[in-house]
């Protein structure tokens, strides 16, 4: 082959390799998972809110918190006084006890009535069912006798037909007469099959009614009785369940009266305490204001419970799993935070409007909610400093942009950083050099291991060159 041909072949091969490399690159880029670039602008940072409520009716005499203040568990939030609390509670308890006593009597009457009616209806239903079964058994026996009679007629007609056929065979009888006997035999067979079907139907009806499966016809009365039985049984069970609830409430009221020893003149006060650590996000009352039992005094929130909720089309995130990396961009600050997907749900009810700091984003029927837990540290940008965190220290209530997955360069960098220590360890293992900490003198065993490995390498080189390796002790 000439030099010019070799050069042409070399250039052709180079272009071929370049073409294959470009083609493979295009295919790889085309098959990259889209979830690495999923973005949602319908997202916000949210957190559950704890309500701090009053346990009594009264007047707020002291308010110990303000918006933005941090509170610890069992920290005092407010103090409420009520001069007529005991008397009002005692009166309400007595009224409730009277109402519950009347309700108990009515429930006992309902239970007795339904029990009596259930017994009568069940007896009537069983009697009707047994009578219906006996009637059907009589009809079945009649159908069985009819079948036996028809089978006898068939045998008789078949015997006559065979006799006449023998006469036809010897020429003493015409084919026309034989046809008449054949028709009589077919008619008898038809009546026999009809009687057999009737017997089967009667037996099936007996079995069905015995198993409680029936509809219409002879079982109409039985169906009506069983419907009444089910209605009474439902009423009976409902009354029993309600009676248990009433008895429990009566016992609770009696215990409260016995334990508290309600008086008519005592001045009662109550300290409203925070149940969980957090930060006060709203104060609903003012000193001197009168509040009812269960009224909300304040609301608190903990940044440790904050999360990001984002709305994505369901088909786009069907491959997203728990732990998928996410990037959260706070719009108003330009701060970016890393996070991980905690869960993906299609339908999520946020409950009462006051359960969370802010209402969840609206989602269509084909969309899902993706919940993300944000890391405490932000990416290294000038805008992402701790001092920029507003809304009670964790940007709660802020609208954000969420991107699921990692960019290719960042993923490659993470893989390289995670694999670098492993590569160093493998290199140390292959070279035979033990990992020696800086400032620590190698031991005698380490020196022996290095010498032995060096001898093995020298023997391998000699063998490669065709020199017989030396024998070591």
UniProtKB/TrEMBL annotation:
Q: Name one GO cellular component term.
A: cell envelope
Q: Which residues form a coiled coil?
A: 122-205
Q: Does the keyword Transmembrane apply?
A: yes
Q: Which domain of life is it from?
A: Bacteria
Q: InterPro entries recorded for this chain?
A: UPF0194_transport
Q: Where in the cell is it found?
A: Cell envelope
Which keywords, in A-to-Z order, does the entry hold? Coiled coil, Membrane, Transmembrane, Transmembrane helix
Per the UniProt record, which residue ranges are transmembrane? 12-32
State the protein's name.
Answer: HlyD family secretion protein
- Record the organism: Roseibium marinum
């Amino acid at each position: 082959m000439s030099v010019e041909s070799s050069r042409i072949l070399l250039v052709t091969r180079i272009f071929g390799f370049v073409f294959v490399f470009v083609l493979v690159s295009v295919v790889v880029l085309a098959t990259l998972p889209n979830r690495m670039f999923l973005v949602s602008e319908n997202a916000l940072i949210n957190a559950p809110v704890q309500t701090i409520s009053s346990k009594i009716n009264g007047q707020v005499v002291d308010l110990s918190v303000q918006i933005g203040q941090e509170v610890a568990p069992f920290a005092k939030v407010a103090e409420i006084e009520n001069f007529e609390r005991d008397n009002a509670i005692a009166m309400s308890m007595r009224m409730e006890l009277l109402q519950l006593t009347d309700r108990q009597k009515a429930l006992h009457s309902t239970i007795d009535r339904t029990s009596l009616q259930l017994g009568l209806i069940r007896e009537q239903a069983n009697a009707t069912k047994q009578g219906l079964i006996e009637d059907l058994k009589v009809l079945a026996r009649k159908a069985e006798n009819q079948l036996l009679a028809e089978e006898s007629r068939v045998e008789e007609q078949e015997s006559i037909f065979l006799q006449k056929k023998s006469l036809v065979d010897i020429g003493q009888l015409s084919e026309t007469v034989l046809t008449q006997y054949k028709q009589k035999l077919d008619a008898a067979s038809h009546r026999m099959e009809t009687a057999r079907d009737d017997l089967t139907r009667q037996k099936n009806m007996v079995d069905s009614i015995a198993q409680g499966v029936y509809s219409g016809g002879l079982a109409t009365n039985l169906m009506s009785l069983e419907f009444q039985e089910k209605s009474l049984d439902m009423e009976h069970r409902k009354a029993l369940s309600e009676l248990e609830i009433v008895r429990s409430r009566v016992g609770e009221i009696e215990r409260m009266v016995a334990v508290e020893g309600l008086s008519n003149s005592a001045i009662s006060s109550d300290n409203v305490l925070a149940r969980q650590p957090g930060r006060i996000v709203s104060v609903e009352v003012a000193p001197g204001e009168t509040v009812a039992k269960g009224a909300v005094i304040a609301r608190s929130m903990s940044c440790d419970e904050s999360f990001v909720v984002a709305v994505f089309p369901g088909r786009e995130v069907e491959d997203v799993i728990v732990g998928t990396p996410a990037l959260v961009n706070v719009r108003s600050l330009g701060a970016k935070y890393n996070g991980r997907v905690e869960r993906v749900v299609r339908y999520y009810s946020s409950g009462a409007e006051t359960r969370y700091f802010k209402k969840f984003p609206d989602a269509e029927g084909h969309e899902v909610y993706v919940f993300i837990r944000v890391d405490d540290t932000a990416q290294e940008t000038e805008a992402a400093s701790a001092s920029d965190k507003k809304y009670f220290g964790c940007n709660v209530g802020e609208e954000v942009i969420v991107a699921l997955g990692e960019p290719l360069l960042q993923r490659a960098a993470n893989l390289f950083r995670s694999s670098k220590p492993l590569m160093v360890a493998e290199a140390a293992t292959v070279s035979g050099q033990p990992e020696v900490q800086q400032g620590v003198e190698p031991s005698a065993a380490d020196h022996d291991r290095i010498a032995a490995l060096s001898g093995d390498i020298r023997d391998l080189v000699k063998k490669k060159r065709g020199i017989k390796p030396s024998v070591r002790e």
